[in-house]
Amino acid sequence: MSRFPATSDRTFLESLIAAPSPVGYEAEGQKVWMGYLEGVADRVEQDSYGSAVARLDVNADVMTVMLEAHADEIGMVVQYISEKGFVYLNKLGGSDSTIARGKRAVVYSQKGKVFGVIGNTAIHLQDRKNGGAKQPEWKEIFLDIGAESREEALEMVQVGDPVTYLDGLEYLNEELVTGRALDNRMGGFAIAMAMKALRERRKELRVNVLALNSVQEEVGGFGARMMSYRHMPDAAIVTDVTHATDTPGIDQRQHGMVELGKGPSVQHGGANHPALVRHLEAAAKAAGVDVQHEATSVRTGTDTDSIFYQRSGIPSALVSLPLRYMHSPVEVASLRDLEGLVQLMTEAVLALEPDQEF
Ligand SMILES: [Zn+2]
Questions:
Q1: CA of 249 to the centre of ligand 1 (A)
Q2: Does residue 173 fall inside a structural domain?
Q3: Ligand 1 centre distance from Cα of residue 351 (Å)
Q4: Same domain for 53 and 102?
């Protein structure tokens, strides 16, 4: 079945997801991403906050299109260490406290990785009458790193160290993968694969291409804002994950219909420039890539919202990868959708005219 990605690129995908990149602490993930792009792009650069840019340049007289994804993942952070050595956590970005307990997690300290478990009071011992079964607040979530006192814990970790769950990439079958941080390492991988395809078809390329892997999306789209202001491309194709709504308990009347394996999703409305959206739809059709459709009511909730209004405006559009169980350590995505996303972005770039305006 799915031969995408090729074996050598699978290793890149696996290392990209294995590398921790919690929001505000993206250095490890960026190292992996830039390492791959250095073998593909003409130039790779990073700004002071860690957003990374890879370029394929044609010449200064033609338009520049940006492919964008975010590099950060949600996570947790060491908030407080109790006298008994328990490490209390707070969220980084939109982490869900309901699923935190009973998981293995890693603290990335100055001295290296510290492994721990997020304590879950045994079902027998829970005080249900006093709210033991309700959604916990983050202040109730603690990590047990095996320390017996605050002093001992402080020899291993400090307040402000980032934390992620332990999970890496696993294959459910030939097509479906699961893990933490598929939001949005899949996007970083997709723009890297598009750059690779464009590099291979360089003779057909008539516009400059800039791939941006931005930091700090999960707390407000800040990296994308800094870098799109700096580089001011003529158009931006943004990719992130979107909710697959094909699992039990989701009201499709409210959240729309997106299915796993039915192709990337084209977004309409809001920051999505109508002419660029039409360009993407035409490119999908020409390439034989099936797409799904989503309506943006107010905001896309992605870096697109940060990019489109920079300076006098950057025509932007979002194409998304369907994802089940977003912001959990068991996010699920389809490699077939991922392949379609890469093809769509590649063909959309190749179809741009050197002087194209939107
Ligand atoms: Zn995301």
A1: 22
A2: no
A3: 27
A4: no
Neighbours of ion ligand 1 (CB under 5 A): 183-184, 240
Do 263 and 330 belong together in one domain?
A: yes
**What is the Cα–Cα distance from 217 to 297, expressed in whole angstroms?**
20
Among this protein's residues, is 339 annotated catalytic?
A: no
Helix or strand holding residue 56 (H, E): strand 52-56
User: CATH number of the domain that 260 lies in?
Assistant: 3.40.630.10
Distance (angstroms) between ligand 1 centre and the Cα of 218 equals 7
Strands 208-214 and 64-70: parallel
Residues 69-114 have pLDDT tens digits of 999 999 999 999 999 999 999 999 999 999 999 999 999 999 999 9
pLDDT digits (tens, 9 = 90+) for 156-168: 999 999 999 998 8
Spacing of C-alpha 94 from chain mean position: 13
Residues 160 and 195 in one domain: no
The domain boundary, picked from 165, 195, 216, lies at: 165
Using the mean position of ligand 1's atoms as its centre, give its distance from the Cα of residue 186 in Å. 9
In degrees rounded to 5, what are phi and psi of residue 240?
A: -150, 180
Annotated catalytic residue within 68, 175, 217, 339? 217
Report the percent of the chain where pLDDT is more than 70: 98
Please list the alpha-helical segments (H only) found in 62-221. Answer: 150-154, 182-200
Reply yes or no on whether the pLDDT at 52 is more than 70.
yes
Residues 192 and 316 in one domain: yes
pLDDT digits (tens, 9 = 90+) for 12-24: 999 999 999 999 9
How close is the Cα of 209 to the center of ligand 1, in Å? 22
Predicted structure pTM score? 0.96
Whether 225 and 338 map to the same domain: the answer is: yes
Which domain, by its residues, includes 327? Answer: 7-73+180-350
